[in-house]
Hints:
The structure holds two protein chains of two kinds.
Chain A: H1 9-32, H2 51-57, H3 60-93, H4 99-111, H5 114-128, H6 134-159, H7 162-170, H8 175-203, H9 207-212, H10 219-228, H11 233-276
Chain B: H1 9-24, H2 26-55, E1 59-60, E2 67-68, H3 74-79, H4 82-115, H5 119-134, H6 137-148, H7 153-160, H8 164-171, H9 185-196, H10 198-209, H11 213-221, H12 226-255, H13 258-262, H14 270-278, H15 284-307
Antiparallel strand pairs in B: 1-2
Helix pairs in contact in B: 1-2, 2-15, 4-9, 4-10, 4-12, 5-10, 6-9, 10-12, 11-12, 12-15, 14-15
Amino acid sequence: MRFDSKPSLLLKASAVAGLMFLHLPVLLIFLYAFTTEDKSYEFPPPGYTVKWFAATWNRPDVWQALGLSLKVAAASTAIAIILGTLCAGAMSRARFFGRETISLLVILPIALPGIITGISLRSAFNIAEIPFSTLTIILGHATFCIVVVYNNAIARFRRISSSLFEASADLGASGFQTFRHVLLPNLGTALLAGGMLAFALSFDEVIVTTFTAGQQQTLPIWMLEELVRPRQRPVTNVVAMVVVLVTLLPILGAYYLTRDGEREDADDGRKSGNRNA
Amino acid sequence: MKAAPGLPAAQASALARLSDAFWRHPRIFVALLLLLPLSWLGVVYIGSLSALLLQSFFSIDEFSGLVQYEFTLKTYRELLTPSNFDIILRTFLMACAVTVAASIIAFPIALFAAKYARGRLKALFYLGAMLPLWSSYLVKIYAWKLILAKEGIINWVVEALGLKFLLELILSTPVIGGNSLSVSYIGTFIVLLYVWLPFMILPVQAALERVPRNVLEATADLGASRGQALRHVVLPLALPGIVAGSIFTFSLTLGDYIVPQIIGSSRRFIGQAVYAHQGTAGNIPLAAAFAVVPILIMAVYLWLAKRRGAFDAL
Lengths: 277, 314
């Protein structure tokens, strides 16, 4: 059997089975959000109701946790966009000594287990006598969000041809004008995509947050407490479902933003190919 | 050089001079760009890591329970006591098992997505791998708590199919079994695999995308069967991707403390030990020493991975 012909049935079946393994469990949560059972995780649900949505809506603790999570995610995304872009700009421009070390340094906060980042930050805050607050949560989140923006930005930097900057300089633009009118428009969607992913990452981060939050509750910490000691299963089901939907939007958004960029590239390639022919 | 529109001439020329200076001294410009992000990562992150490392060389006074701030290797020696070493070994083996299983499940998905899927199907596969990568960690664990519960879907299916004896047989296996799936190593393994699997798919897919189609055609033209081509051409070319993905599955499993706490037996993993020692026990030096273990394992792992060229596939 030739390798380059059609995929074997086994390959197709295992690929589809793998994808189903990844997606079916989360879909089950949607079913549980409507169950009438509130004392156990009984399957199949004995009946269906929408009353838990109203019950969740009226819970001030859920709203408070959601508010804090959104605030933290917005702030750390903003910091990550600035730092990640600066870093990507420098790294795309020059080869210099210590370059690999810097790329390792950027990846490290996400490649090392969260508990290490968490306990490191906690002991550093203790030593520096910084009290735990919203600010300490943001400090931690921004640190591991930088890499997300960085990855998106550096991929785009690589695709922007340097002749664009040279042309801009030849036409008399200063470096700042080039930045404003040439670089930013080209970089925009990549930054937006990176920012959205950073937002999603920060919005549901729990491991580092348990170490840096003190008494405050972000939405994931609220959920973690419910996971360890289930007290309000129906409300947790609804919150879990809402979290799935809320994180889905920025992820899909980031996908469409970067996909369009790649398609433009492909089109450009085709056009120039035609011209050469 | 012309003045920028809308700016006073003096200010514009100062800006222009600055931008000219940057142009003439690219190194200074790069250094300026790096100043902010590097000082953030250097101060906040490396500073914190060093603070942690430092603590692991202190020890705790057994009688007063206070931290003694003088250099000692006593805390590291404590890691080698049988109960602590068991924790390390258990975590290490689980990380190996999860990584191997993740690469086996990820490979067909990545191969199909990279080499056979076209157009819409390809986008579907890409999204299918990317969505779970970014979606909520806790929600994923919660989903499995629902699935593995005694009254949950797995037991319902097993009973409906009349396979209850089979499940009980599996659960009666020593070590990996337990009273039910949600308190056994099998349960912990499934959930860790589920949570970290997406980190394996995308790097493997990226590595396979780079294999030119004509290489695959050549294997067929030279008379290789599908199995031979897979074994001698496709797998070696996918290996850097698998290694890159395994960096994540391995490292993230090593440090996970939430999954084993929620789904699993009472036997601890490294992450849980770190959490317990820094929290209620208040033994920060031992917690720090435990946290250094995954760092060391990962350092060795990264060094090996680098020699195999895994970083090009990230």
